[in-house]
What we know:
This protein is α+β, with helices and mostly antiparallel strands. The protein has a single domain, classed as Alpha-D-Glucose-1,6-Bisphosphate, Chain A, domain 4. It is built from three helices and seven strands. 19% of the residues are buried.
Amino acid sequence: xxxxxxxxxxxxxxxxxxxxxxxxxxxxxxxxxxxxxxxxxxxxxxxxxxxxxxxxxxxxxxxxxxxxxxxxxxxxxxxxxxxxxxxxxxxxxxxxxxxxxxxxxxxxxxxxxxxxxxxxxxxxxxxxxxxxxxxxxxxxxxxxxxxxxxxxxxxxxxxxxx
Length: 162
């Protein structure tokens, strides 16, 4: 299993970060396509909660996803699978949100990737791409939420330490 841990601090409260992470239908608003990610589509009823299902389309396959843990505004876990005879993929993304003293949020993302079948032969070559994509996702989330905050903040409140 490949495990990658990344973290960042976002200048928004945990409730806002959790809302963005769990608003599956609006990922396209803040997460542009990449070499790995294409889109996410919810496949079950609203509101998003434990048990919500979705499809995560990548450039190589479509993974079937489910929210396995839903604890607003502290923690959410997504699990995805793409079963196959020659290649199978299982992914888990575990987000833990911790409030900071200045009203922001420390976002910790632990991703696990398990490759089955022929995929095991390529596991060591996949790890750097997994880290890069995890870092890209947190950077995009941070940029989106902080830009949204800045747009809603009157200029008289500037300057702010960042």
